[in-house]
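User: quick one, fold this
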Amino acid sequence: MTKLALGTHPFLLGFEQLERLVERTAKSGNDGYPPYNIEQTSENAYRITLAVAGFSQSDLAITVEDNSLVIRGRQADDSEGRIFLHRGIAARQFQRSFVLADGVEVGEAVMENGLLHVDLTRAVQDTIVQTIKIKKG
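Assistant:
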């Protein structure tokens, strides 16, 4: 029995990129830091919340790259001249990526109490019915 790849199923015409998208998402390298939530705030809206305690707004960058929302954090090293007896607070850089479906737009980003909130909206697409005329050959 032959196993069909997702993008090559006969009923999924034009979805060849879907399999590449799934592979890219699986290899995105997200290691669990920083922790995050994704919530649906309405029928066509979402909010991603990342726990970014210790990061200032200037330490964070949010971009949309090739249908991916990419959030990066980089803190300046301020430990020079300081002697730590214990250092348990992570001060490391991160990159967290989220693949966006077609029609999903990134709204505003708000930093509040060590949490970064990024709002997303999905455009409601109208149902289109198209009649194709059959020509005589």
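User: anything notable?
Assistant: Residues 1-30 form one domain.
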